[in-house]
Amino acid sequence: MQRQTCILLLFVSLFSISLSASIASLADLKKQVIDGKIPSRGVNLGGWLVAEKWMTGGSPAWNGVPDDIANKGEYSAMKYLGHEKGDPQFDEHRRTFITEQDFKEISEAGMNTVRLPVGYWIVGFDHTWGSDVDSWKVYAPGGLNYLDKAIREWGPAHNILVLISFHAAKGSQNGNDNSSPEVPGEADWFGYKENVNNSLDAVEFLAARYKDEAAFLGKFFLS
Ligand SMILES: *[C@@H]1O[C@H](CO)[C@@H](O)[C@H](O)[C@H]1NC(C)=O
């Protein structure tokens, strides 16, 4: 009995040593990357939280969606599928397209950073005005859980820093599939103050949510 307790304690203390070591080194890594002492070596995880057909052709997200619709982005695909079919398909996509195993392999390959494109709908609210305050509701909910996992669990577990790319703005900044336009081909972001306001609210929300996380390196805006 005593011996088992001893082994258990040893295990617990080794576990906590390795846990604190990895957290300390992640914070240190972040500082050194920000100070320019260590280069940020990274990879882009495109197509995951903003699904783009050309990068994710075999994904369950697009099951039953004709190519000409899927090629217009996530909004068009979800509008076509509806929540009953689309939510489980997009959830399966998010659950399987990028997993903790990818973070492990990225780390083993000698990299220290990932870039994660997200869309305005990930925050799950729109406090603006105008005729389009419900467009975020067309998307499958729950994307934020995966961003949480990446920043709060997988990054710290594998010493990977995360750059969020605010990649798809309400109204669309370029009309292309990567910004998930409601009217494919139209870029209606800058013409409408409410869309710009929505972007600022979303970016503020993400900054407040992750500012104290060791793995959160920062954000790109519309890049
Ligand atoms: C956006 O508009 C809402 C509602 O008018 C306001 O509460 C919010 O502060 C605005 N956000 C920004 C970043 O200006």
From TrEMBL:
Indicate the secretion signal residues. Answer: 1-20
Q: Name one GO biological process term.
A: cell wall organization
Keyword check for Amino-acid biosynthesis: no
What molecular functions are annotated in GO for this chain? glucan exo-1,3-beta-glucosidase activity
Q: Which GO CC terms are listed, alphabetically? A: cell surface; extracellular region
Q: Report the catalytic activity.
A: Successive hydrolysis of beta-D-glucose units from the non-reducing ends of (1->3)-beta-D-glucans, releasing alpha-glucose
Question: What InterPro entries does this protein's entry cite?
Answer: GH, Glycosyl_hydrolase_5
Which SUPFAM superfamilies is this protein grouped with? (Trans)glycosidases (SSF51445)
Keyword terms of this UniProt record: Cell wall biogenesis/degradation, Glycoprotein, Glycosidase, Hydrolase, Signal
The broad enzyme category this protein falls into is hydrolase
State which Enzyme Commission number(s) the record gives: 3.2.1.58
PANTHER family given for it?
A: GLUCAN 1,3-BETA-GLUCOSIDASE 2, GLUCAN ENDO-1,6-BETA-GLUCOSIDASE B
Protein name per UniProt: glucan 1,3-beta-glucosidase
